[in-house]
Amino acid sequence: MVSNQTAVFCPVLLCFLLFACSPTDQDRVDRLRGPEAEVTDLFAIDDSSLPEDKLFGTIQQLLVAESGELLIVDSQQRTIHLFDGNGNYIDSELREGEGPGEVRRIGRVSLSAQNELLLYDWSQRRLSRYEFDIEPAPGIRPVADMNPEFYPRDFHITPKGDMFCMIYPGPADPDNESIQIQKIDENGDPYGEPLLEFAKDEILEFRNDSGQMLATTSSPHHKKILPYFHRDRLIAGNSSTVGFETYSLITGERIDSVGFTRPDVELPAEERREFVETMTERMGFDGIQVSSMVNQMPETKGKVRRLHYDPDGVIWLNLVTDEESGVPHWIALGESGEVLGQLSDELPGSVLQIHRGRIYLLAETDSGARFIKVLEYEV
């Protein structure tokens, strides 16, 4: 039989133990740390890597085939430049036009592990399917064109040949509150119920005095999904949490979930206003009421900017950081959530892809010329 005195004492003792064992903000930051990753330069790809009659325009994406070839998507030149795994030029594929497999305005491009390629043409609202052939020589061959009635933000082909699109709700569609992972047929039409649904991204809306929508954007502090497709899985991060979730594209079930607790950091009013004013000026919306847009900004800072997946089993998270946060710029996680390494400093360029122990950056020379910088990392 428990006495009244013991019954009173135990909750007090329990509260004391919980308080004593509760992690501090510094503990939470320390758990994000790992050994410093070793990064070395390998090679660069710039205009001198192309034939004399060609130049890079706007490098939009870089894709890596399982066999090692690099596909550099050039939206300005409306082409995909092919290089081997050592940075040697092979060819430039695609043609401008409206015929089968031709392009007008390249949007998103994806490449499956089976070398099947999907490309969305914004101008023609067309989703085209290609095959990236290795033999007898690397090249891109058109297979079929589709005309979906929606704007796909991202898409993917699984090893079984199933095609999935990630469909984002439009800002003018208040009835649709979710981002949907939807299977599509050979005509680009969705069928069946969405396999997965996620809360829609937060956005900043630019409206005129009449309330008409002019444009939308988001800051590093808005909540948004960070997706990465690989084979029959979707690896999804979220900018407001440090971690990721893994889903099966076969069953739609969540396979795993990894998360770290990182303390919230207030987003000062001056930083909110600074972002809005910068974007307003950049977009040429001088007449926009800045004060009303500042109120749309989050009150706390975001936690993660980007997620990249290396098929060797490493998830890289680019953390939102500053001098006071004490967190590294990048952390590398194993698929079970262990911290494998970190990069204390930001990388010298924007990460386009991380694949098989290599990091592919879009870097810039002192004169402003952009080029591909390839690094090798070890964690």
How does this structure look, described?
The protein is mostly beta strands and 379 residues long. A 4-stranded antiparallel β-sheet has the order 1-26-25-24, with no helix packed on it. It is globular and about 60 Å long.
What does this entry show, briefly?
The protein has 379 residues and is mostly beta strands. It has 4 helices and 26 strands.
**Overall average pLDDT:** 89
Helices and strands, in order, run as HHEEEEEEEEEEEEEEEEEEEHHEEEEEEE
Radius of gyration equals 24 Å
Fraction of residues in β-strands:
35-45%
Biggest sheet features: 4 strands, antiparallel
What is the overall number of helices?
A: 4
The helix content is 10-25%
Throw out a few tags for this protein.
four-stranded antiparallel β-sheet, 379 residues, 4 helices, mainly beta
Question: What secondary-structure arrangement, pairings included, does this model have?
Answer:
Blueprint lengths: L3 H18 L3 H6 L7 E8 L13 E6 L5 E5 L4 E5 L5 E5 L12 E6 L4 E6 L4 E8 L5 E8 L5 E6 L5 E5 L10 E7 L11 E4 L4 E4 L5 E5 L7 E6 L2 E6 L2 E8 L5 E7 L8 H15 L6 H5 L9 E7 L3 E6 L10 E5 L4 E5 L6 E6 L2 E7 L5 E9 L1
Antiparallel strand pairs: 1-26, 2-3, 3-4, 4-5, 6-7, 7-8, 8-9, 10-11, 11-12, 12-13, 14-15, 16-17, 17-18, 18-19, 20-21, 21-22, 22-23, 24-25, 25-26
